[in-house]
Amino acid sequence: MRVYESKSISNDIRKVEREIDKLKMERKRKYAGEYARKLNRETNPQKKEELIKPVREITKKINDLQKQLSVLQQKELDYIDKVAKTGYDQELYIDEGKDVEIGHTDDEPEMIKDTVYQMAEYSIKLYKMVDYLEKKYPEVDFPHWWQAKIVKAREYVGTTAHYLESKVRNEH
To answer: What whole-number distance in Å separates Cα of residue 88 and Cα of residue 27?
Structure first.
């Protein structure tokens, strides 16, 4: 089974985010507190430079990963735009110029595309807000009813996508 490009990008994003978090925790654990006080008390410039060197190295790794994360996030946004514009991802193939009816049709593909595009925009906005809140307040908690709506929306969207995927694939 092939992995969808969007799923692969999302997995890569999560992997890089975990690595960044791991390095930040390592930097804080190793180089905060007593180590920072020792660094601040050091008057010898060479010794001070030696003390700060590992902090710089780990910070550079974090910065490099953040750049990589930014590239992946842009790639994900580009992919979402592409899917929103084309109506399907690389896994789906539709014969051009062929009239296709899938179940009962209301001839409203533009309305559906607009709605799905808005959903993608709201999803990105929600993701960014939750990510921001999680970073600002690591112990943030959301109301159960709100979380349930997110899960239900995912189920609805997933079900509709799977339905169309099966219809398109069964055509060939």
So the answer is: 43
Half-sphere exposure of 108 (CA within 13 A, CB side): 8
Q: Which residue has the tokens 């790639």?
A: 75
- Of the candidates 73, 35, 34, the one whose C-alpha atom is nearest the C-alpha of residue 51 is 35
Q: Which residues of 125-142 are buried (b: 16+ CB within 10 A; e: fewer)?
A: eeeeeeeeeeeeeeeeee
Closest CA to 84 of 57, 118, 35: 118
Q: What is the C-alpha separation between 100 and 149, in angstroms, rounded?
A: 33
Q: Could you tell me the two tokens for 51?
A: 């003390």
Q: At what angle do helices 5-31 and 34-41 cross, to 10 degrees?
A: 60
CA 83-85-86 angle, to 5 degrees, is 65
- Joined together, the tokens standing for residue 111 give 């309305």
Tell me the domain boundaries of the chain.
1-91, 109-172
Quick: pLDDT tens for 29-84.
Answer: 888 888 888 888 989 999 999 988 999 999 999 999 999 988 988 887 787 777 76
Kindly report whether the global pTM for this prediction surpasses the value 0.85: no
Number of residues assigned to the chain:
172
Q: Are 165 and 89 in contact (CB under 8 A)?
A: no
Taking the CA atoms of 153, 156, 162 and 167 in sequence, report the sign of the dihedral they define.
negative
